[in-house]
Write a structure and sequence with these properties.
Largest sheet: 5 strands, antiparallel
GO cellular component, one term: extracellular region
Organism: Celeribacter indicus
Region (Disordered): 168-206
Strand order of the largest sheet: 10-11-7-13-14
Number of strands: 21
Mean pLDDT: 83
Helix content: 40-55%
Low-confidence stretches: 188-195
Domain Flagellin N-terminal: 4-137
Structural class: alpha+beta
Biased composition (Low complexity): 189-206
CATH class of the largest domain: Mainly Alpha
């Protein structure tokens, strides 16, 4: 049935053409924007996910900038630490040269002072935008990542870089805090029960009291520092003691002497840093006996005479924290060292050694070493050429400001024999500190470089993921555009034909 009021064919053609035009508009938009999902109405879920990912990409690009700055800062710090190591090595060469007495130590000291000034210049200049990693002890954080949890919350992650203080600062001693005196034992007493001892410079000794009935049949074999003498007994203890003392002195052992008084032979060890082992063996029908160092009468025995130096022993079980302050008082002068972050008992002992050496006390020398129990010790020796007696005490408190890693560099003085000797040990400690600093910076550089590469790859992966979700397939869009254009033309023709249908009704009224 034909109708002039309702043109069903035209309505169908119009609907089809409208649908084709809508698809054509979408395809043209895809081609012009390059995106299949350009707005939330295209696909709200995919659009929302892509926008979150795009915000992460923007964040990671900012992180890349942060890592680049951090990498540059670390590079400057590492180069500074390496340069300082080289300069300290040059100073060591000068110090070694100064060990000879027939050199011009004053000129060598001038060269050393110039190198010390260069070290300070390098440390002061090693900064980027005011941030210097070779001065101070505070940690520095480099923004390294953004971590998104399943609930959508975001947290920042950092790479923490420990500053390596290569300044020559002495730090500041803590006060009013927890006492740390019990961590260091003065000489041989129980930790914390005695805080002072005296180094007189006269050495230490042991008494060998001879005692026998028939001296003419008794023999004494005495070993002093691995050197053995044999004495035939005499009817008189004094005569036997004189012979024994003379035989020991005849050995010519450096720092060892013997004297007899009425049959009691006193053997003295004046070696600054070496113990002396003494053993005695009495034999013969006269049953020659002795009392060695008050241990009681006997035919054999061994005793060790301690070194002349006084020993301060750091308890190996004691923890060292940043700001822990230790003070050695020698005579009436205080010598301080304040521990830095991550330091150990060895660092504290070597720091105190450097501080005492800087005092340039006449006749006083020091040595840092580990004892048989693994404890670090500071030995302070007085050869007696200066003060007749030096009172040595030790104390400690927390809450101080750490000494610099090159503490003591300013006090290197090779113009004297004792100064040259002390400088040789101390410069080695400073070189090790600089090497450790360079190694720490190198390790941190590796972490930052690895993270930077990861962030770059992660950003690329996120961009690729966003593109796969929202980007248009241009080949498909191009083919679809051509197809829709053909459909549009056909739709227009179909609509034209449908609109011509009512015209045929007029022929019925002709």
């Amino acid at each position: 049935m034909s109708s002039i009021l309702t043109n069903n064919g035209a309505m169908v053609a119009l609907q089809t053409l409208s649908s084709i035009n809508s698809d054509l508009s979408k395809t043209q938009a895809m081609i012009s924007t390059g995106k299949e999902v350009a707005s939330a109405k295209d696909n709200s879920s995919i659009w929302a996910i892509s926008k979150v990912m795009e915000s992460d990409v923007a964040g990671f690009q900012a992180i890349s900038d942060s890592l680049a700055l951090g990498e540059s800062t670390l590079s400057v710090a590492a180069k500074a630490a390496e340069t300082v190591t080289d300069l300290l090595t040059d100073i060591k060469e000068k110090v070694v040269s100064a060990q000879e007495e027939n050199v011009d130590r004053e000129k060598i000291q001038t060269d050393i002072d110039a190198l010390i000034g260069q070290v300070k210049s390098v440390v002061g200049a090693a900064q980027i935008n005011g941030l210097n990693l070779v001065k101070g002890t505070e940690d520095v954080s480099i923004l390294s990542s953004l971590d998104r949890s399943p609930d959508g919350s975001v947290t920042a992650s950092d790479i923490t870089v420990s500053r390596q203080d290569l300044s020559t600062s002495a730090g500041s001693y803590g006060g009013g805090g927890t006492s740390l005196t019990s961590n260091i034992d003065a000489d041989t007493d129980t930790a914390g029960t005695q805080s002072s001892t005296t180094a007189s410079g006269t050495g230490r000794s042991t008494d060998l009291a001879l005692d026998a009935t028939d001296w003419d049949t008794a023999n004494f074999e005495v070993s002093v520092g691995g050197n053995t003498v044999t004495i035939a007994g005499d009817t008189d203890a004094t005569t036997t003691g004189d012979a024994l003392a003379a035989a020991i002195n005849a050995l010519g052992l450096d720092g060892v002497s013997a004297a007899n008084s009425a049959g009691t032979v006193t053997i003295t060890n004046s070696k600054g840093f070496d113990d002396l082992s003494i053993s005695v063996n009495g034999s013969g029908s006269g049953a020659g006996t002795f009392d060695i160092d008050g241990a009681g009468a006997g035919a054999t025995g061994t005793v060790t005479v301690g070194q002349r130096a006084e020993t301060l022993t750091f308890d190996k079980t004691a923890k060292v924290n940043e700001g822990d302050s230790y003070r050695v008082t020698v005579g009436s002068t205080n010598y301080d060292y304040i521990a830095g972050k991550g330091e150990t008992a060895e660092d504290v002992v070597r720091g105190l050694k450097t501080a005492v050496d800087a005092g340039k006390l006449d006749g006083v020398t020091t040595r840092a070493a580990q004892d048989d129990n693994g404890n670090w010790t500071l030995q302070i020796d007085n050869d007696g050429s200066g003060s007749a007696s030096l009172a040595i005490s030790v104390a400690g408190e927390d809450g101080g400001t750490a000494s610099g890693g090159l503490f003591g560099l300013d006090n290197i003085d090779v113009t004297t024999n004792s100064g040259a000797d002390a400088a040789l040990g101390n410069i080695e400690t400073l070189i090790n500190n600089a090497i450790d600093a360079a190694a720490e910076f190198g390790s941190a550089q590796g972490r930052v470089e690895t993270q930077s590469k990861f962030i770059s790859n992660l950003t690329d992966a996120l961009k690729s993921g966003i593109g796969s979700m929202v980007d248009a397939d241009m080949e498909e869009a191009s083919a679809k555009l051509q197809a829709l254009q053909v459909q549009q033309q056909l739709g227009v023709q179909s609509l034209s034909i449908a609109n011509q249908a009512p015209q045929t009704i007029l022929s019925l009224f002709g």
